[in-house]
Design brief:
There is one protein chain. The chain has 425 residues and is of the alpha/beta class. The chain is built from 17 helices and 14 strands. It is globular, with a radius of gyration of 22 Å. The chain starts with 9 loop residues before the first helix and ends with a helix.
Length: 425
């Protein structure tokens, strides 16, 4: 099924052709007709399935069909994303789709100056892509209003909830005076997600392109049991022995990321950082170096688990197992995209066996274990027997996500807002 068959304007079709888009993906085939007819949508779709075009193209076409002059400090459409990287990527994609039109799209997120964002918002915008915290800051300062909003999209909505954005979402919805067409896209679903959908969607059309909480079948999974203190050595060993050239490594803490980059460099392996303490410009440079091959390894916290589009990325390594089993799906979704083969490698110490078991339950498959000679953990068999024989141990819940890395704390946002209000007076 081609994009021309969906009655998109010639300008859009021309731009999509230049982007290399030929046929609609399954999520686009299902979502676009509903969206074109104005329905609210609740979609279950993994990353890498083409969902950005699924929600963006109908909005773009509707804006073209109902042309209006841009109103000062107003947005016709708002797309919310959990991370800076994802917001920037969505905006870039939409700008590619609209290159032959007059549709104005901008992205606002933390890590960049408020003043420069205020300037572009002042003249009005058709499509505004934003992270929740930064959007609220601009709304509180009256830099942007949602009173005339026509379209609202929540992308990676499950990740927003994981990062503690539920209060921010409710604040944003309180500023919406209209009844916009609303679309919610999520890779996983939970009770909290269903509650949110019930509050913000009106008789939504459900779209599902994959069984919930599963990973792409193009990804090969492997687990290396190893003591925590030997993980760094194991990573260097695998990169060197197997000659891995592009490796995205996930850790749970920024401190771990900083230390690991230093250790890898001592081993002659060029590595870069991507976490919440890094300025947006530094994170962008790190990603560019990694994509171009100047850096062999990128060390990231879960702030980078969504939205990173790295073509043909061969390896994702969980140096630390994630705090939540669902985040395993998000992390490894960076590889095995668009039909390409990918490898998900996880290092598991004794304390992480429980999380591994919950990951296997979530994805519906047992992950292949491989012990590397010289790195075998101690007494692992006894721990596994304990886990499988004691229900109380097996049913324990994993820890929650580390909130410090979301970089969107309410106290920090209120403090920054007060400073800006004083500066305006």
């Amino acid at each position: 099924m081609s994009f021309a068959s969906q009655n998109f304007s010639p300008e859009i079709v021309k731009a999509l052709t230049e982007c290399g888009y030929e046929k609609l993906t399954p999520v686009q085939q299902k979502a676009i007709p509903f969206a074109r007819r104005g329905h609210d949508i609740l979609a279950n779709a993994q990353t890498g399935t083409g969902k950005t075009a699924a929600f963006a193209l109908p909005i773009i076409q509707n804006i073209l069909d109902n042309a209006k002059p841009q109103q000062r400090r107003q947005a016709r459409a708002v797309i919310l994303a959990p991370t800076r990287e994802l917001a920037a990527q969505i905006a870039a994609n939409i700008q590619d789709y609209t290159k032959y039109t007059a549709v104005k799209t901008i992205a606002i997120y933390g890590g960049t100056k408020m003043s420069s964002q205020e300037k572009v918002l002042d003249s009005g915008v058709d499509i505004l892509v934003a992270t929740p915290g930064r959007l609220i800051e601009h709304m509180d300062l009256n830099n942007v209003s949602l009173v005339n909003l026509e379209f609202l999209v929540f992308d990676e909505a499950d990740r927003m909830l994981d990062m503690g954005f539920i209060n921010a979402i409710e604040s944003i919805m309180a500023g919406v005076a209209t009844k916009p067409q609303t679309m919610l896209f999520s890779a996983t679903f939970s009770a909290q997600m269903n509650t949110l959908a019930g509050k913000i969607l009106r008789q939504p059309k459900r779209v599902s392109v994959a069984r919930e909480n599963v990973t792409a079948d193009t990804i090969a999974h492997v687990v290396y049991p190893v003591e925590q203190e030997r993980k760094r050595e194991l990573l260097s060993e695998l990169i060197g022995r197997k000659n891995w050239q592009q490796v995205l490594v996930f850790v749970n803490y920024k401190e771990t990321a900083n230390e690991l980059v230093k250790e890898l460099k001592l081993d002659g392996i060029k590595a870069v950082l991507c976490h919440g303490d890094k300025a947006q410009s530094a994170r962008r440079r790190a990603l560019d170096e990694f994509k171009s091959g100047k850096a062999r390894v990128m060390i990231a916290t879960d702030v980078a688990a969504r939205g990173l589009d790295i073509q043909n990325l061969p390896h994702v390594v969980n140096f630390d197992m994630p705090f939540l089993a669902e985040d395993y799906v998000h992390r490894i979704g960076r590889t095995g995209r668009a039909g390409q083969r990918g490898n998900a490698v996880s290092f598991v110490n004794r304390d992480e066996e429980l999380t591994l078991q919950q990951v296997e339950t979530l994805i519906g498959q047992r992950i292949y274990r491989k012990e590397l000679e010289g790195y075998e953990p101690k007494n692992r068999a006894a721990l596994l027997e304990k886990m499988h024989s004691k229900p109380a141990f097996k049913n324990r819940r994993t820890r929650q996500n580390n909130p410090s890395d979301s970089n969107q704390g309410d106290a920090e946002r209120r403090s920054r807002l007060r400073r800006m209000i004083r500066a305006k007076k």
